[in-house]
């Protein structure tokens, strides 16, 4: 499960797989009825447009369901003490390393699931790189907090978030490009919450900032 786009390929737990299978039944039935309805509307352009719109939304829902279940299937493994800098270094793709600037100095440790944390950090970095454009830069730093909390700060050099509403920013397939699942922020948010933390979003002059706090 190297990235958000690979989530739907990972096997689901038996209970979630069964539930997803049951939900696909009604979806498939609706698609079959829509095909029949297409033949009945004839030359009525308004009706045909409505049927096509419904079919498109049903296809989108069918694509979203396995991704949503894959995010829900992320579960916390055995926690261990981890170096936050090492997590970041593991999450940076070699092809993008020149565009990712990791702040120098001593970095703290955090207790958590290494696999999930690397996955979450990778999603944040990938989103930031995409927002920064081909020549943009991503800056990563860390900030210790009270009670052993650690906040990882990922800053891009893009245009910033279009809204301050986190519910509008973290949405399934929000702004997804062709060939991408568009679940990166959902994955990062899920992992942060599994570690007792959260994601906070901010727009600053020169880019956007995502702060992932782990407790």
Overall pLDDT: 87
CATH topology type of the largest domain: Heat Shock Protein 90
Number of extended strands: 7
The computed structural class is: alpha+beta
Architecture per CATH nomenclature, i.e. the level-2 architecture of the largest domain? 2-Layer Sandwich
Polypeptide structure, described:
- This protein is α+β, with helices and mostly antiparallel strands.
- It has two domains: 4-72; 80-214, 2-Layer Sandwich (Heat Shock Protein 90), CATH 3.30.565.10.
- 46% of the residues lie in helices and 18% in strands.
- The chain is built from six helices and seven strands.
- It has helices at residues 14-41, 45-72, 84-91, 114-132, 166-169, 184-194, and strands at residues 80-83, 100-102, 109-112, 138-144, 150-155, 198-204, 207-214.
- The protein has a five-stranded mixed beta sheet with strand order 2-4-5-7-6. Strands 1-3 form a two-stranded antiparallel ribbon.
- Helix 1 packs antiparallel against helix 2 and helix 3 (84-91) packs across helix 4 (114-132).
- The two termini are 24 Å apart.
Secondary-structure blueprint of this entry?
Elements: H1 14-41, H2 45-72, E1 80-83, H3 84-91, E2 100-102, E3 109-112, H4 114-132, E4 138-144, E5 150-155, H5 166-169, H6 184-194, E6 198-204, E7 207-214
Parallel strand pairs: 2-4
Antiparallel strand pairs: 1-3, 4-5, 5-7, 6-7
Task: Give me some keywords for this one.
single chain, 215 residues, alpha+beta, Heat Shock Protein 90, two-stranded antiparallel sheet, 6 helices, 7 strands, 18% strand
